[in-house]
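Hi everyone,

Forwarding the result from last night's run.
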Amino acid sequence: MNGTGVGASRYKPVFEHLASWGFIAIGNEDPSTWEGKKADLTLSYLLNANEDENSIFYHRLDMNNIGVEGHSQGGVGVYNTINATEHKGIYKCAVSLSLTQEEVAEQVLHISYDPAKTAIPVLMLSGTENDVITPDNMQKSYAKVTSPKAMAVRKGAAHGDMLYSADGYVTAWFMWQLQGDIEAAKTFVGDTPEILSNSLYQDQKADLEG
């Protein structure tokens, strides 16, 4: 789910990277990703394609392993997609990158979301520099989520950096949550989860079960 003014056509490296790890990656040119509505319609398109004999996706989708990722406004949209759309029960996990903090979203952009409604595992990542959410507000947002979760704040990273600089963690998260990759899981769980000791990050937390 894209950020404000940055449609999916500008995310090509992200799509190609995820596809190279065995995922079907799809997005759109949505100017209002925060609602989650068009993301859910996009999923509907894929679900229909999965049953269409003329589609390259015919019976290629793993219906039990669908995740959602969003950056910036799309990071807000992740919560609305998994908590307030028609297919909210189908998503298995989520990643919210540099989501707009709640006060700014409501008072300035007039958009809203509620992390407390989340019932699936979610990974939250942001940067320390000129991001749309401060490290303190990341902590507050994280505290509202009661489902399995993890978070980290990239030192010295600005808002636009997070889509790419956090890509390793995003990929590992989806590989673990959606593909059952045991090695990827060690990034977040086990005796010494890698994310908790990465010196490039601060405020790392992981409330998860391996």
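The first strand starts at residue 66 and ends at 71.

Cheers,
N.
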